[in-house]
Each structure stands twice: as structure tokens, then as C-alpha cells.
Amino acid sequence: MRRNRLESLRPDRGRTRGATGEWLRIFFAALTTLLVSARWTPGQAQIGDPLAARLAELKDPALGSADRVHDVAAELRERLRVDTSVPIDWARSVTDYRVALQVRDVPRLPVAKHAWHVSMALRDAGHVWTARTLLEHALGELAEIPREETFACWLHIELAEITRHAGEWTTSAEHLEEARIGLFGEDSDPFEAPLPAEDLRAIAVGTWFDMAGQLYFELGRTELAARNFDEHEERALETGEPSLWWGALDNHIRLAFSTKRFRELERLWREAQAHPFWARGRTSERANISFTVARAFLEEERLGHREPGEAFEMLVGIATAPGAHEFEAFGAELLLAATMLDEKELEEADAWIEAARERSAGWGPSAKDGGRTLLALKATEWRAARVSASPARVAQAEAESNEIFERFLKSWAEAPIAPDGIGFLQTPWRAQFLNEVLALRLSKGVRPALEDLLRVQSLGTLTRTLLESGVDLADVQHELLGPGAGAVLFSLGREQSFVFTLSQNDVKVHKLAGEYRLSRTQAALSEAAFDLSAGLTRSDSAFEEAVRGASALLLPSDLAQTLRTWTEIVVVGAEGAGIFAFDALLLDGEPIGTQKAISHIPSLPIGVWLTRRLSNAAPPAPGIEIVYSTDTRGAPPPFDRLEPIPFDEDHVDALSSLYGSARLWYGPEAREDKLAGAGLEDASALSFIAHGLYSPERPQPAGLLLAGGDLLWAEDIEAMSVPPLVSLIACGAGRGNVRVGDDGRTHLGAAFLKAGARNVLLGSLDLEFRAGLSLHLGFHERIRAGDTPAEALRSARAQTIASRVGGVHPIQLLSVRLYGAGHEHLPPLPGEENAAWWIVAAAPLGLILLGYLFLGRRGQKQGQQALPTPPRR
Fold first, then answer.
1. Ordered domains of the chain (ranges, CATH)
2. Tens digits of per-residue pLDDT, 481-493?
3. Do residues 113 and 152 lie in contact, with contact meaning Cβ atoms separated by under 8 Å?
């Protein structure tokens, strides 16, 4: 367990860096306190303060001297430090800065620093647009001062934060890249760079890791965010800088909230309150942390896991504290409104909404450009309109939602395409906004809501990568879904969630519990399943309880009735919604994966695209490609601890008989360089029998272990060309990082789809070896008998579970899923169209081979051979 480094950080641990950080802390504390008590808006100048006369001196070029701007900035700081209650004319400060740019003989550096101070104060007061303009001007002033690269890096870092809040992801990343080059060098790895000796530069380095983590966090790439946050915390330890300590605490608490680790969040908060920096911190710093904690407590109260009242009191304190940060106070007001709406107290909810509306009214253009402020405010307003049941309020909400939803989609579309996907709905305020849009659309019917959800799905990473044009609902119903087939699509929300069902002739919506209740049951099911598959427990009581609880919440009676009428089910985007092992859920007391033919697709547009590709595919060549990697020698740590896989010649012979021939890649031939350019895509199928790899520090963490320690990662697979059908007997091949709202590109299924596959058989858990081979052979037998891939998996899975091969627990087989267009028949082999009778006649031979395979000499000698995924680091 990683020790709590926050707890060990003490003021005396730094290397004499306290003075610089303390000065910055006092300065920003003064500015924040000042601006909370006296918000600036253009035209509200207060000239009576004596400091205004000093500022006015800058307007006279004759008074312009080399240190005039510096003196005024210093006096401004000192005055605020001594007396934070005096209102300052920020409009005049901005004007004076622009005048100073034209004053002769005034050095560029003091002018730029003055602009930086003013811009940061404006930012904290909510005037983000003006702050950004000043920072960009200041950056221009430094362009010709090469020795001031540290200060230029600071400006880039601040601009990265502002542009990130505005949803300008690419611009934010560009500013961070400029800061990285300035702080670490063009070709340096920031994680390997030593801490600079200079105070301000060392703090800038720590802040850079903070901002990089924030950008990853904003895009839902939580693993990369956590790595940068950890490095930021290490730099805080080395510098002893209070501002870095506060940033590290905030990051870890927000990350715990985002990943719903509420117990860890509360522990961090309690320990931080005993830290010396807590009492010395600004009101705004404490309010920022307490706001996230209150959100977590509120969800715990909603689930009945905490006594009600504590979260409400915390939020009231944040909303009314005179020194609280404007944005946290705004968020607290909206959460208080949401709490009142939960209790149907509409009048009190409206009062809190109005307070939030007034607070954000003067925040400038960036707050009205589809950013978090607007989305959070409107989502709460629209929910209040629905609760009021007022036709006028609902009509106004519907009219507003059209335009703002377009801004939301535009912001999402402008997010970069990352190799591992982006979790755009990881942040609760975005998910809440989308949920409210769907709720408003549902008042007009299910179809309008589904059409909007289809537009959202078209923004998924895999969809944007593979599709050149979009699809509509008619395409989905007529091309993806055949007779007797239906699709289920989950959309999770804070107050309630929706699951949409659609078939060729019908669309419906079913209401589910809120996201946090669903995620609790999913976490319990996932944990119990992993414990069973890894052999950490022999009792399945925890799993049975978890699967019953998850089934009750995810398959309510009206949804279950719809599913009973289908023979084939297409599960859409379950990974992006955090749904674990849909195939294991109970329908009428039995796993649905043994009753129905189920396939999983990342999104509806991808499903249509796969169907079209299959319908236009030419018949493949006979034969199957088998990559059988048995040797683990040469594997790098920690994969060198994996046991060799036994070679089963009978299994290879059986597959060869089914497909007419087989090309075996075994021993030294089972390497990436041998497979590259080998024409794998010309075969009917490709099968990997190998150890699955999982490296959580990688953006795409899943891979396969080949011969000689060769590691085949997801990005390597994407560069290959493979046949339409790929099957993986490899533990954890379907495991990957969750990207909430995205169409799942971090596991091997998505990698093989990009490489040309149309169906991928893979599992998420550890898989007992003999049971895996049994399922594998049974699946291919049913494929050759003419079943669709989804029906082939259902049949093989039911048979293997019933046979109890290897003493396997059913969840290991139910976690194996069909990823792709599983309800479409694969292209027949040449001359096979009239030869179905031969396949049927050969079925008894397959049973004989199966019996020999699992009851023969080799099976008895090997016993239970598991393919465990390596321990997580």
C-alpha cells in the first residue's frame, strides 16, 4: 500500500524555499479575499483610494521610468497584504497596464509581472476572459527576454489552466508543451528531471505536473492523471511549498471522488485537517477541498451509508463563507439546489439556483461558452423546471437545451483523439448535463432522446477513428438489428439512469437507479468475480450476493420482459458506462449469457459499420492461423514469473480439421516480427493461445506475451492486418482502463477491430486453461456448423459450464464475451455454401476429439493449468 505522503509533508522539510511560496500565498490570499468582497465589473470604478493616484501616474509618459511599473505593482501587493478590505479599481489596473506598454524606457519584465498579478486576481474573481487576454499580452512582452524563461513558463502554465477550463484542449496542451520545453528541455523526460535549485522554478515544475494531471483528468484519462499527480506530490515533498501541498491534496481527493473511492477520500480529508498547513491555509483553499468532500458525503447520504445533514451544512458554509473561492461557492449553491430538488422543496431550490445565477452573471464570455459553469447551471435549472411541472418553465428549458447541447457536442468534438480514448463523461457535471438533456427529450418521446444519444456516440474515440460518416436511427434498426434481435444502451445519471432498448420496429426506455448506486453494485460484482477467478477465495457466496444485487438493479421487471422476447441481444457501450459482465446477470434465475446470443459493440455507429463491412466482405481463404506461445523465457519483469503454457497438439489438430488447414506459429515463430506481413488477413480466422498481459501504467494496458519475451501490445496489434474472426485464449485480454462515455479503445478487442477483425472472442478475467480450450474449440465448432458468432459463444459456453471442465467457476466463462458484429454470419469459405451437411455430419467427430482432449493422457498429467494475469504494480 502506498504510504500517505501528504501526511509526512511538514513546513520544515523544504530547502529554504518557504519565503517565496509564503509571499505568493499571502499575495493570492489577499487578492482572493478582496475580490470576493468587491466584485469588479466595467464601469464601477472607485477612484477614491490613494493607490489609484499611483496607478494614474503611469498615464503620463513623462513619469515613466525604468522601475515605475515595478514600484506600482509592489505597492499594490503591499497594500493588499496590509489591508485586504480596500476595494481596488481593477478596470483602471487593466487600463494602466495597457498604457504602460506604450511608456518609453519601461522594462518589459515589470510590465509583464504586473499583468500577471492582475490577471490572476481577475481569474480568481471569475473574470477569466480578461485574465486570459492579459496573460497573452504578458507572454508577448517576454518574447524577447530569453533569460526570463521561468516566468514565461509560469504564464504558459496559467494559460494552460484557463484554456482547459474553456474546453480548448489542444490549446491547453500546446501551452503545457511550451512550458515543458522551457522547464525540462526539448528532449527531456519530465519524470526523470531533477528538482531545480531556484525556488520559483522548482515551484513551477511542481505546478506543471499539477496542470498536466488536470488536463488528463478533465479528459477522463485517470491513470495518466494519477501518475502526474503523484509526481506533483513528490515535488511538493522536496520543496516544502504550501501551495504545492494544497494542490496535491486537492488532486488526490478529486481523483478519489471521480473514481468513487469515498472511504479513501474521507481518510485523506481527516488526515489533512491535522496537518499544520491546514490551519495556515486560506479560506478558499479549505473551501475547495471541503467542496469535493461534501459532494462525496452527499452521495453517501443518498445511498443511506451516512447520517444525513453533514454534507448540507458543509455546503451552506462554503456558499456563504466570505473568503471562499467564487467557483466553489457557485458549485455549492447548485448542489444545495439539487439537494432541495431531491426533497421536492422547489422554492428553496429556486433560491439557491438564483444565487448561483447572480454569482456567475459577471464572469465574462468564457463562462458562457459551453464550459462547466454554464452546463452545471443549466442542468440544475432544467431539473427544477421538470420538478415544477410548469409548462412554461419546461418549454423554456427545452428551447435552451437545443442551442447549449450543440455547444456541448462541439466541445466534445474538439477534444483530441487519444490512443487510449478519453472519458469525456468522467466529470460529473458533464454527465449530469447530458442526463438532463435526455430527460427533456424524453418528454417528447423516446426516439428524440435516442437520436441525441446516437449523436453523442458518434463522438467516441473508436467511432471518430474508423468512420468517415455518421449513421442515423433508421440505419441502426434496419442494418444492425435483424428479426428477433434487440439492442440495449445504458446512459447513467446522478439522480436516475436510463436504459434504452430498440429493435427493428420499436424503441423503449426503462428507468434505473442513479449512477452511484449502480456503480456500488458493479464494484462489488467485479471484486467478487476477480477474487474467484484469481483463486483468492473458494467461496462464491459474495459473488452470488453481488450478482443478484446487480441483476435486480440493471434488469428491472419491464426491461427483463423486453429481453425475454428477444433471441439475440446487442449490448452497446457497456464498458463506457462501467457495466461489468452483462452476460453474467440473472434473467429468471439463470445467467443471461447461457440463454441468449449476446454480442458487445462499443457504439451503435461502430455496430452499423461492422455490419456493412461483413456484408461486403469477400469469401476468405480456407484455413486458420494459430499463434501458440508456450515459452515465457526472456520475458521482462514482472512477466518473467509466468508459468509456461502446455502445448496441446490435439487442440491444434481439431481446429485444423474444422477449417481445412492450419498454419501454426509456435516456438520461435510466435514472434511479432514473424507475424508482420505474413498475410494473416487472408485466412478465415486467427487464434492466439498465450499469456495475457496487463500493465496499468500504459495508456493501452493490455497485451500478449509471445515467444522469446516478445511483448505484443494493443498499439502493435492496431498496426497489423487480421481476418474477420479473432479468438483469444489469454487471461485479461478484455481488460482495460474505463473511459466513461467513450467507446472503449484500451483493451485488445478494440485493437483487433481496428486491425480488421469484425468479431473478437476475449475475456476479462483469469481463465482456467482446460476450460478455456474447451470453450475455444466448442465456439469454433459451432461457427463451422453455421451459427453466428454470438450464438456459437452461447452454445459453447452453456456446454462448457455444464461439463464443469477443469472445475471452472461459471463467472470465468461468462466473462468471455463476443466483441463485434456477433449476430452476422461470417463469410463462407469457397465452395462451402452447399456443404453444410458435411459440417453437421462431422459434429460427432468434434465431440470425440473434445473428449480425448480433456480426458486423455495430457490432461491428466497437467492438471489445472491457469493463465493468470501478472500481479498489478
1. 19-144 (no CATH), 148-257 (1.25.40)
2. 999 999 999 998 8
3. no
